[in-house]
Write a structure and sequence with these properties.
Helices cover about 15% and strands about 30% of the residues. The chain is built from 3 helices and 8 strands. It has one domain: Ubiquitin-like (UB roll) (Roll). The termini are far apart.
Length: about 150
């Protein structure tokens, strides 16, 4: 448990002291630096955060593959970091990036947030493609870039 002086140092001070969760991860929200559009939410371990800050390119930790990865290492859609921010209690990171290739999502779309969530009067929750279409608005074909596994 943080004492009051520790909380004050984290929230008001200028010492970088990221607080990783029990699994050693921080949540990272990544947005387009020019438009502000949310491109993706991912996780970083200490090494991913360090590499991001020292290289100027976004690195993440894949929970599903349990490994470090550089955004764009397979697709070429690298994220160049324009600015990195840490939240008030230093347990989440916000990256503002220039997205090479126009797509951040492994599905081939610009953003990972390509569906809306709504509830009807009866409480049934539904998803719809945000572009109003059939969801086919992809920047690239994931099967061609990543192979069958995506």
């Amino acid at each position: 448990m943080n004492s009051e002086p520790d909380r004050d140092r984290n929230e008001e001070g200028l010492t970088f002291r990221p607080k990783f969760d029990a699994g050693g991860l921080l949540t990272c929200v990544t947005t387009d630096a020019a438009s502000g559009e949310v491109l993706m939410v991912a996780h970083m371990n200490e090494e991913a955060l360090s590499r991001t800050l020292t290289t100027g390119e976004a690195w993440y930790f894949s929970r599903s593959r349990a490994r470090l990865w550089r955004k764009g290492e397979s697709s070429g859609h690298v994220q160049r970091v324009i600015e990195a921010r840490i939240d008030c209690d230093q347990d989440a990171v916000w990256l503002r990036v220039e997205q090479a290739g126009g797509a951040a999502c492994h599905t081939g779309r610009r953003s990972c947030f390509y569906r809306t969530v709504t509830a009807d009067e009866g409480g049934a929750v539904r998803l719809a493609f945000a572009d109003g279409g059939d969801g086919a608005s992809r920047v690239f074909d994931p099967a061609a870039v990543y192979g069958k596994g995506g």
